[in-house]
Structures are given as C-alpha cells and as structure tokens.
Amino acid sequence: MTRADKNLLIEELSQVLAERNVVYLADASGMNSAQTSNFRRECYSKGITVRVVKNTLLRQAMERIEDKDFSELYETLKGQTVLMTSEVGNLPAKVIKELRKKSELPKLKAAYVDSACFIGDNQIDALSSIKSKEEVIADVVALLQSPAKNVLGALQSGGHTISGLVKALEERGA
Fold first, then answer.
1. Which of 111, 134, 136, 169 is deepest in the core (most CB within 10 A)?
2. How far apart are CA 173 and CA 108, in angstroms?
3. How many of the other CB atoms lie within 10 Å of CB of 84?
4. H-helix or E-strand containing 110?
5. Where does a domain end: 115, 130, 145?
6. Are 85 and 110 in contact (CB under 8 A)?
7. What span, in angstroms and rounded, lies between the C-alpha atoms of 5 and 48?
8. Cis, bond preceding 92 (omega within 30 deg of 0)
9. What's the Cα-to-Cα distance from 97 to each of 67, 75, 122, rounded to whole Å?
10. In 94-122, which positions are buried (b, 16+ CB within 10 angstroms) versus exposed (e)?
11. 83 and 109 housed in the same domain
12. Could you please report the per-residue DSSP string of 115-147?
C-alpha cells in the first residue's frame, strides 16, 4: 500500500468517525468464514457498517478528529480490529450479544458511544441496555400521557360528573 493510499484511507476513516457518534471495536479473529458472513449479514440488516481496519491507520484517523476524544480506545488497538459504526448506541452490542449465543466470537474490545468510552468485553451487557433516542422519547411520551389517562379514566368511571370524579379520586387515594 502506497503512502498516498494510506493517507486516502486515513482520511476516509476520519470522515466516518467524525460523522458517527457510535463506534465499536471488536475482535473477530478466529471466526470461520460462515461465522464471518453471518456477522456481516446481521450487521448489514441492522444498518451497522462493518470494516476490518489496520490499527495504526485507525489510530491516526482517530487522532485527526478534534471534537471527539478517542484516546481511551488506543490501548485496545492490538490484533485484528473490526470497526463497527451505527446511528443507534445499543444496536452493535445487541448484534454481538445475539451472535454470542452461538459462539464466543466476536469479542468486544471497546466502544465509544456519545462521548463515553467503554473498554472490555465485560461491557457488552451495559452497552446493550443503553436506550436509543427513540426508546427514550417513547418513555417520555408515556410518562406525559399517564396523568391524562388517569384523569380520563376517573371521569369515565365517575359518570362524567365532577362529583363522580371527586369520588373516584377519593377511592384511589389521590
């Protein structure tokens, strides 16, 4: 690989890292071709980009990003590294966790999710339980709707009168 090719690849990786707030580093060495194909297929179906990268080039790309601090991930850049990027913070972890039901691979090296770094394979459960933006919005909407549903339920059970509402609320202890 020529120096120009390396610089082009570093620039491409830098652009990917700058655009995404979810970056996972995994070790897939030891996976056979069927496992690797299944891994890539699962990731592709979930909108996760997967790429095997050279550690030195990835580190140089990470160092070029000014508004994100990837320095905690540098120590994990050893051996084979698979770069996984996604829009959703918990999606790569869920894919890895699902694949791990059948095999011990791939292993999580590290993850960068919205400026937080997670180091080690033992973080897979924590990462898979992170709520996505859509899940948080749904929880907030459900919380906001709950008091209105209680009032509507009390009105309906009380015969649509104010006295019925007061009586229903007294019975509930509110």
1. 111
2. 50
3. 25
4. strand 107-113
5. 130
6. no
7. 25
8. no
9. 30, 23, 11
10. bbbeebeeeeebbbbbbbbbeeebbeeee
11. yes
12. TEEEESGGGHHHHHTSPPHHHHHHHHHHHHHHH
Q: Do 41 and 7 share a domain, yes or no?
A: yes
Check whether residue 115 and residue 38 sit in a common domain. yes
**Averaged confidence pLDDT in the chain:** 88
**65 and 145 together in one domain:** no
Place of tokens 């996984």: 84
For 59, the token pair is 């580190």
* CA–CA distance, 28 with 40 (Å, rounded to integer): 11
Same domain, 115 and 154: no
The verdict on 76 and 123 lying in the same domain is yes
Same domain for 55 and 116, yes or no, is yes
Residue-wise pLDDT tens digits, 101-151: 998 999 999 999 988 999 999 999 999 988 877 777 888 887 777 776 666
Same domain assignment for residues 9 and 71: yes
- What angle (nearest 5°) sits at the alpha carbon of residue 24, between those of residues 22 and 27? 170
Highest mean pLDDT: which range of 71-75, 87-91, 135-139: 71-75
| Amino acid type, 164 | G
Range of the domain at 148: 134-172
